[in-house]
Amino acid sequence: MAAGVRESFDRATEITARIHQCPVPAGTVSPPVIVRPVGEAPPVAE
Question: What does the pLDDT look like over 1-46, one tens digit per residue?
């Protein structure tokens, strides 16, 4: 992975880790946050 891409990916990972620190109403389900490169297609449900 190129240095600039790696730095951007690392930053995106830091931001997603902080998402779960945000306050939410009691009982709220916290789904996983997925980080992937912009050019990558989202997963297809089967």
Answer: 566 777 888 888 888 888 888 888 999 887 888 777 776 666 777 7
Residue 12 and residue 35 in contact, taking contact as beta carbons nearer than 8 Å? yes
Q: What are the DSSP calls for the chain, one per residue?
A: --HHHHHHHHHHHHHHHHHTTS---TT---PPP----TTSPPPPP-
* pTM check: above 0.90: no
Report in angstroms the alpha-carbon separations of 45 from 5, 6, 30, 34, 37.
Answer: 28, 28, 20, 15, 19
